[in-house]
């Protein structure tokens, strides 16, 4: 019996099918485009799907859809993050959820460092200065990364990639916080030193967030955490919006508790007009629209790895990188 693959991603079905068919032993399958489906249409499609390809637009795959699943065996999320998928509901239905843990690691790491350079060299304000005829050459006070302390929150694939790329900048120290300390060989390889989160926040000139969003990390950067940071420190969030209490961050920036922030991810995406961060002056905060992981190279790797895992599932093999029990 021919199997059904439901794609929620905004990709060409023809391209997706050709990528999957590169793997040997893939049976015939029908491909359903669910990217623009209504809620009811999605429910009907979930009832027929054997495999679902999620989307990097983070459309929610909640319990309502999972409860309508029929022969569904795998949800392949084409990203590192998978917090848009209800893992508990999937596990209860014995539906595996897999991610792509390395596809856009380089892209996110480069974006993180680009944000740090934009903040340290005051590029947003400098650009406005020239465009608006102010020529603020002597008042912007850009600074070097060299000699500073950088704190990495989350030493997964992205955190490690950031640490490697920081080596040429001559930082005094790169601290990291993670739920479990890495092996000494790993710390030596990436040039990092373990720290508790409170000590990392207190000591760092730049803090970048690369942790997953879960019950223990939600709002981990709250008013208290921000108050513990240096007044000249900068916060970079390329992880998930929910890692930061956005109201507390907006307040900290307006009151100059910290010097600035760069934000790629938001609690609500896109952020609504009432989002407190949008009220912060542009000389205090740099925004990007959740593009840290977006590049042609990264997306190619993500789609290739997703297609290979989907092919495994369609052929009756165990998928790789399963994130739920």
Summarize the structure.
The chain is of the alpha/beta class and 325 residues long. Helix content is 34%, strand content 14%.
List keywords for this structure.
single chain; 325 residues; alpha/beta; Rossmann fold; 2 domains; 7-stranded parallel β-sheet
Q: Can you describe what's shown?
A:
- The protein has 325 residues and is α/β, with parallel strands linked by helices.
- The chain has 12 helices and 12 strands.
- It has helices spanning 13-20, 39-48, 63-66, 87-92, 105-120, 123-131, 157-166, 184-190, 197-203, 223-227, 246-254, 296-314; strands at 3-7, 29-33, 51-53, 74-76, 96-98, 149-153, 173-177, 193-194, 206-209, 234-237, 260-263, 285-287.
- The strands form 2 sheets. Strands 8-7-6-9-10-11-12 form a 7-stranded parallel beta sheet, with helices on both faces.
- The longest helix is centred in the last third of the chain and has 19 residues, at 296-314.
Largest sheet: 7 strands, parallel
Q: What is the helix content?
A: 25-40%
CATH class bucket of the largest domain: Alpha Beta
Distance between the termini: 28 Å
- Which residues sit in consecutive blocks of at least 5 with pLDDT less than 50? none
Q: Number of helical runs? A: 12
Binned strand content: 5-15%
Multimeric organization: single chain
* CATH superfamily annotation of the largest domain: NAD(P)-binding Rossmann-like Domain
Order of helices and strands: EHEHEHEHEHHEHEHEHEHEHEEH
Under CATH, the topology of the largest domain can be stated as Rossmann fold
Structural class, by secondary structure, is alpha/beta
CATH-defined architecture of the largest domain = 3-Layer(aba) Sandwich
Mean pLDDT: 96
Taken from the alpha-carbon principal axes, the silhouette is: elongated
Number of domains: 2
Strand order of the largest sheet: 8-7-6-9-10-11-12
Cα-atom radius of gyration: 22 Å
Give the beta-strand count.
Answer: 12
